[in-house]
Specification:
By secondary structure, the chain is of the alpha/beta class. The protein has a single domain, classed as NAD(P)-binding Rossmann-like Domain (Rossmann fold, 3-Layer(aba) Sandwich). The protein is built from 9 helices and 7 strands, in the order E-H-E-H-E-H-E-H-E-H-E-H-H-H-E-H. The structure holds coenzyme A and NADP nicotinamide-adenine-dinucleotide phosphate. The site of coenzyme A has 13 residues, from helix 4 and helix 6.
């Protein structure tokens, strides 16, 4: 989707957007939407190579881009990245907390370390980024967008760790919206459905045409999402169009979660029995 057909190409001119996990997938797509509307970008992740590739894509859209190797579980690394961003690009106006980990695993097989890894990346990592960016967001009266998921409000099989982490992320978002509203900081979540071509989708939906066709058919809008669907929601929530919106979860899933997780559960059970 070319956002510039609907929104001014200088909507975010002079504004700095920091995206955790911005080197790939949905987060990179969000960064690209901000870049297309004039923003400068700071992106962090663990892999310098991945960030370098993303940087070229974002620079191609006209943005100034800073890449920072930082693990969101490491508060000091994020605090340094925020400071370097302020010095190099200017104060952060919009923070996107997108870094996350996921793998399917039955609860009875999940180790304490596996549960902790996902909660630490998604939930602690989102707190770390928000806390480290607070002073700059206060100065800019900025916004925070958290990447949630349907697992936050509907239990999905093999996703106990992700459900707990993302439900925590949404509640963190509400608490920060409550406490930081007085500084003009708005906080919201976006909960994507299954987004085609992403790592998250690769990990959860077996690469099998018939499985995917049936999963797609269970989505009321009849298609998987595109990265741009989430980018459009992200720029809306950051824009003046959403000036009075804070503390909300915007579900962008084509209606996928409306029937609950049953269609997905049934498909997984069938796939598992076919493999027996
Ligand atoms: N099934 C069950 N447990 C798993 C697992 C899997 N597929 N993959 C990792 N784990 C467990 C490990 O056994 C370990 O637990 P232990 O300490 O009890 O042995 C724990 O998770 C941490 O594993 P490790 O590989 O050290 O974690 P990491 O910090 O290097 O990586 C992950 C984090 C596991 C979330 C990894 O999948 C990742 O980096 N993901 C990022 C990309 C991604 O998930 N994208 C989709 C986003 S929706
Ligand atoms: P992705 O491409 O794997 O994105 C995750 C990013 O986070 C990667 O760039 C990864 O880079 C980074 N990351 C992971 N662990 C990190 C850490 N400890 N510190 C810093 N960065 C870290 O996956 P995606 O599918 O696009 O998912 C993006 C977001 O959307 C996630 O929050 C996910 O939960 C959410 N979501 C996705 C879907 C979907 O269908 N894909 C659905 C619902 C919600 P490095 O590995 O280089 O660090």
């Amino acid at each position: 989707m070319d956002l510039r057909r609907f929104l001014p190409s200088d909507l975010f001119a002079g504004q700095v957007v920091f995206v955790t996990g911005g080197g790939s997938g949905i987060n990179l797509g969000i960064a690209a939407c901000f870049a297309a509307l004039g923003a400068d970008l700071a992106i962090c992740g663990r892999s310098a190579e991945r960030l370098a590739t993303a940087r070229r894509e974002l620079e191609g859209l006209g943005a100034k881009v800073l890449t920072e190797v930082a693990d969101v579980r490491d508060y000091d690394a994020l605090a340094r990245a925020m400071e370097v961003t302020r010095e190099s690009l200017g104060p952060v106006r919009h923070l996107v907390c997108g870094a996350a980990g996921n793998f399917p695993c039955p609860a009875e097989d999940l180790s304490a370390g596996g549960f902790k890894a996902v909660v630490d990346i998604d939930l602690l990592g989102s707190f770390n980024a928000s806390r480290a960016a607070f002073a700059q967001l206060k100065a800019t009266r900025g916004t925070i967008l958290f990447l949630s998921a349907g697992q936050a409000f509907i239990p999905y099989p093999l996703q106990v760790h992700v459900g707990a982490a993302k439900a925590g992320v949404d509640h963190l978002m509400r608490n920060l919206a409550l406490e930081w509203g007085r500084h003009g900081i708005r906080c919201n979540s976006v909960a994507p459905g299954p987004i085609e071509g992403t790592e998250g989708m690769r990990r959860l939906a077996p690469d099998d045409e018939s499985f995917r066709n049936r999963l797609r058919a269970a989505i009321p809008l009849g298609r998987f999402g595109a990265v741009g669907d989430i980018g459009a929601a992200a720029v809306f929530l950051a824009s003046p169009l959403a000036a009075y919106i804070t503390g909300t979860v915007l579900v962008v899933d084509g209606g996928q979660n409306l029937p609950g997780s049953c269609p997905f559960t049934e498909l997984l059970a069938e796939a598992a029995s076919n493999n027996c």
